[in-house]
Amino acid sequence: MVALASALAGCGFAMRQAPNFGFTTVYVTQNVTSPVSKALQRELAASGIQVASMPPVAGKAGAVVLGVITDQRERAVVGQTTSGQVRELELRYRFRFSLSTPAGKWLIEDNEMLLERDISFSETDALAKSAEEQLMFKDMESDVVQQVMRRLASVTSL
Predict the structure, then answer these.
(1) Is 52 within a domain?
(2) Residue 93 belongs to domain spanning
């Protein structure tokens, strides 16, 4: 066991740790009540970042403004039978955000993420497929939150 631990330590392996952010306070604007926006606010608070309810004053050290521009779910038919029945759907989750200082300096300009998932569809299993669709959207929301957190952690200085 000791040999395994020393071998892993020697190769540079380390457990994933909480990210270090270059800011201490964040103010979320626009789509504040969207599911991803709420989840982001919870994740930031859990990481030790203060989520402000009022816009920060320009010049306040360690404060940033997170603008949630777009947060939407999309559903498109991509496959049909010869009789016109839906057989396959494409689920999309589109999230667009930006990060700036209170003074207006862009730290992350408008950044759009688009996640896509394919799902089969059956009229006879419509209720089950609807539940599966909701689970896939929840999974995509979770993916978006983690990706945004990694992008926010890439900001090291204001």
Answers:
(1) yes
(2) 21-153
Global pTM? 0.77
The rounded distance, in Å, linking the Cα atoms of 68 and 73 is 14
CA angle 94, 99, 104 (to 5 degrees): 135
Work out how many domains the chain is built from and give that number. 1
Tens of pLDDT, residue by residue over 74-111, are: 888 877 777 777 778 888 999 999 998 888 889 899 98
Position 5 in a domain: no
Asked if 50 contacts 25 with a C-beta cutoff of 8 angstroms, the reply is yes
CA distance 144 to 73: 12
| Total number of residues shown for the chain | 158
Q: With H, G, I as helix, E, B as strand and everything else as coil, classify residue 106.
A: strand
3 state DSSP class of 9: helix
The Cα–Cα gap between 51 and 41 comes to 7
